[in-house]
Predict the 3D structure of the following.
Amino acid sequence: MAIDREKGVRVVTVGKLLDEGLFIPSYQRPYSWEPVTALQLFDDIREAFEPGKALPDAGQAQEPSYVLGAVILHRDNEDVQTHVVDGQQRLLTLTMLLDLLHEASEGRTEVLPIEHEDPAAPVVRVRAALARRVRYMEESPGAFAGFIRDNCEIIRVETDDPDEAFRVFDSQNYRGKPLLPHDLLKAYHLREMSGESDSMREALVEGWQNVPDAELDRLFSTYLWRIKRWTRGLSAPTFSTRHIDSFKGLTPKSASTPAARYHLAAHTAVPMLAAWVEHSDEADRMAKRTRFQIDAPVVAGRSFFEMVTFMLAELRRLRDEGFDEQDGDEGKEKPWSQFASTDDDFRELPSRARYRYVSELYLAALLYYTNRFGDVENREAKSRLFTWAYTLRTSYQRLQLVTVNNYASSLDDSRSAFVLLRSAETATELRRLHVEVKGRDDTPKHEQDLMRLLDRLAG
């Protein structure tokens, strides 16, 4: 159902909105504002607050003078609850501030600690910072609280369609943290876990929150999204919220075609078959590669989170394994690791920034190869994929992402490792990949160390 243009979007005061008893769903990220962000909100409101302003009519309320942006709400008709999709950080900060102002107006200025609270938690640090600011403010706490409740407004957007709520989610919270595509995916897949226990959902949220945003963004934007596109001979534009449908996956309701039912059944069967196999790290890794095929749809819900956990670990392992080859010519050539743009923890190395795109291209190709064929002919595959990717670096003085994109998405399967591997039935078919080491005639000294290594690898 679309947002009701008359009732679904309206302006309300902060007081009326907070009095609605809104619900924070489990998929929302924990409170994460830093004190500086909360104090900026405090100062912005305080600047708009004019307690001595004369009014045309003394019996008339002061006109609202400050707008605090919009909140996106989802009306859950089954639970009869209104969920906050966007605006949680702002609303919780305002709630803390109003509580502190109320206590100050009654003469209580000391903030007592809550039993077992973590002093390093963002919510505790923000509350302490706001309390200090309230303690030293010159204005009347009661009047300031009244201004926030009655004279500050928020644009209230409500829909009963959860997908629509996330589509209209403002990409930039008020002075807060931008919503990334993987945040929406987390919310979507948690909603698909209605049959799971609350403890399971909470554990998944906690596990997700322990992974830095940069790692999740890199997994989807730099690797999974590009692989999905390049294997089909398609360019991979910057991954954004418009593209998350590619990772929403299958549900029992949506699996209406034979192909969808096949993939759904496969996801169910693989864990059961793996239970009969003797467990080892390699056996478990192979089982997960089998279950989480990159070019196959994922199953919505818990399986999605298990896929993300595996892919994050797989990418880290391949970062180590993919660059562990040493020179084989009595030390005359630099080891592969000298041409990686990051260290083992994926921290960018400024001195090797020029290798960023080819490093990412190589690891994406290696991730896809091992996802398809495991460790079969692994040493030969790494040499060929490394040469195929890194020859771009020796061919161009300035290498841009658009060039990499065109190179990787070529429909000629002898030119694109991704297109070739998608149709390959055996690992040895990778030998059909055209590999030609090119240097720059106008710059004879351009990447000489890399040229020597590639020449040897290409034979």
